[in-house]
Amino acid sequence: MIRRVVAPWLVVVSGLLAGQAAAFTHVVKPGETLAQIAERIYGDAKLENVLVGANALDTQGGTIIVPGMRLDVPAPGHHTIVQGETWADLALSWLGSNDIARADLLARTNRSVPWVPPVEGQAIEIPVIVTYIAGEGETVNTIARRFWGDPNRGWELDPYNRREGVVVHRGEVVLVPMPHLKLTDAGRAEARAVATREGLSGGILLEHQERAEAELPQLLADIRQGRYVEGIARGNRLLGGGALTRPQLAIVHRALVEAYVAVDARAAASAACVAWRSNDPAAPPLDPARVSPKIRAACSTP
Predict the structure, then answer these.
(1) How far apart are CA 72 and CA 238, in angstroms?
(2) Please, are residues 127 and 94 in contact by the beta-carbon 8 Å criterion?
(3) What is d(CA 14, CA 60) in angstroms, rounded to the nearest whole number?
(4) At how many degrees (to 10) do helices 246-262 and 228-240 cross?
(5) Angle at Cα 101 formed by Cα 184 and Cα 191, nearest 5°?
(6) pLDDT along the chain (302 residues), means of 10
(7) DSSP code of 47?
């Protein structure tokens, strides 16, 4: 059973980051389309795919939105380096695995390389990771073209997802890093307005942690009620938002283990389990009487 844990500490960052809020909520207005929202917030209508993935809109066979609907809008998150952290440590906490592909992504996003450790007190960016559910006849190349505009980069998705091969099976979960995703001036203004309205303004990230804390029950409800794809999208959006505490990270990764197992994303489940145990080293061994064999198998996979 996963318990709700109250955030035990706060992290302070410079005022520069205060106006660069992470994921926020957009309420759909009459006449709006996903393409219009993406154009205004990201500066590119084609990035409506990011909104589709973040809100699991493609799981019901369509991407229709209606006025009043609340959309999660992914945006880069931030984290302040504490003494001794490495890119591998950070990749494990925020991206679910400390393998070289994810450590390299995080380092490159912050204009560094994985073998040069970040500096204590440095504010780094946590890139957006989109959850994509593959359709019929998909390949890593078609997914790369969809999100990055370049089918020749499809091979980059394999190491990040700990998978092999060009063909992607229908229903397969593919995590797509979006390290260059930025908000337009209009997007930043909307993020600031939401932050102010919801009490998230200022340079202290405790409010972000409290907001995430309030959303954790919904994540756990997604898993309990079998909404696994929605749970995967929600969990990755929470991770991408940055500023979570280690107990919160443990809860998110533990939920992702179950969701990934349910959709047969074995490599992702294994990575999520490693990240869960890393953020909650005191977690007891998995009880065979209470934990499914598939989850125990995922957690025993190196």
Answers:
(1) 10
(2) no
(3) 41
(4) 150
(5) 20
(6) 29 30 80 93 91 73 76 84 91 86 93 91 88 87 92 94 89 87 89 69 54 83 89 82 78 91 86 86 80 85 58
(7) G
What the block records as the tokens of 141 is 């190349």
For residue 144, give the nearest of 131, 157, 135 by alpha carbon: 157
Query: Please, which contacts does 152-159 make with residues 24 or more away whose CB atoms are closer than 8 Å?
Result: 159/99, 159/100, 159/101
Q: What helix, strand, coil percent values describe the chain, rounded to 5?
A: 50, 10, 40
b/e per residue 161-180 (b: at least 16 CB within 10 A): bbbeeeebeeebbbbbbbbe
The whole-angstrom separation of Cα 204 and Cα 111 is 24
Q: Tell me which residue of 120, 163, 123, 124 sits closest to 143, measured CA to CA.
A: 163
Cα 250 versus chain centre, distance:
14
The domain spans of the chain are 15-76+127-300
Output the six-digit token pair for 144: 């790369």
Distance between CA atoms of 43 and 185, rounded to whole angstroms? 9
**How many CA within 13 A on the CB side of residue 180?**
6
Return the residue matching tokens 């909404």.
227
Using DSSP bridges, classify how beta strands 123-126 and 128-133 pair: parallel, antiparallel or unpaired: unpaired
The Cα–Cα gap between 106 and 91 comes to 7
pLDDT (0 to 100) of residue 194 = 77
Place of tokens 């369509």: 62
Which residues face 232 on adjacent strands?
none
The token pair that represents 6 in the structure block: 């109250």
Distance CA 97, CA 101 (A): 9
Residue type, 135: G
Of 34, 11, 23, 14, the C-alpha closest to 191 is: 23
Q: How far apart, in whole angstroms, are the C-alpha atoms of residue 256 and residue 269?
A: 7
Residue 226, classed as helix, strand or coil, is coil
